[in-house]
Amino acid sequence: MLEDPKLVQDAIKAPVEPALYKPALDSGGARAIPLGRDDGLDRHTRRNLRKEEIEIARQFHGGRMWPYAVAAFGCFALWVSFFPLAIMGYLNLPLACLISCVIATGGYVTSHEAMHSNIARKGEKLRWLNEAVGAVSTIPIVFPFSMARIMHLEHHYHCNDPLKDPDYTDEAPNWWMAIYKTWYNRQPGVDGSIHHYKRILAEMGTPEAQRALKETMLLQLFFMAVLFTMSWNGYAIEAALLWWLPRHVGLSYIRFYLSWAPHHPREGKTGRYENTNLFKSKLGHVMSMGMQYHIIHHMYPGIPNHRTKHAYYAMRHILEARGVDVSPLPPVGGPAVKGS
Amino acid sequence: MENVLKQVFYWMPFFFGIGFIAPLIAQTMNLWHWQAPFGLSTTAFGLIIGGAWGLQTVIRGRWV
Question: What ipTM was reported for this prediction?
Answer without folding.
Answer: 0.96
